[in-house]
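Aim 2 progress update. The chain analyzed this quarter is reproduced below.
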Amino acid sequence: MDRTERIKEMFEPILQQMDVRLYDLVYHTSGKEKILEVSIMKQDGSMDLDTCAAVSERLSEVLDENDPINEEYTLEVCSPGAEREIRDLGDLDDMAGEYVYVRLKEPFKKMLEITGEIQSVENDVVTLEYRDKAARRKAEFTKENIDFIRLAVRI
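Predicted structure tokens:
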């Protein structure tokens, strides 16, 4: 088991206790500074500063007791962001009404990229409403045809 997996395992009971889930855990360098970045979100996909601070405190305590990194670094607990990637396509089943950007493997009406609102997901078929000039249109594609998908911000 590598260091990142050990850290995830150490953090999991605390994250469950605080009713948040781990989105990503990355150990990286920024200039000379080493950073352990922990992206978390609530079960509904939201996040707030108070929760990040509380989780950061608890994770710091765990790291103080048993730190697998053994060098100086900064712990950053944050939200995955407003335009986070949707990594588990199963999550789409409960995302009707969400605004997303999708890159497809095979084109839908000659389009490989579509930004719009998820209308429904049934039997692994996603129905997305998007704007084409002034008209509203619907795109349908299978989850299997999704190359990449993330939340998008409406402008």
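Residues 49-65 form the longest helix (17 residues). The helical segments are 3-17, 49-65. These observations will guide the mutagenesis experiments scheduled for the next reporting period.
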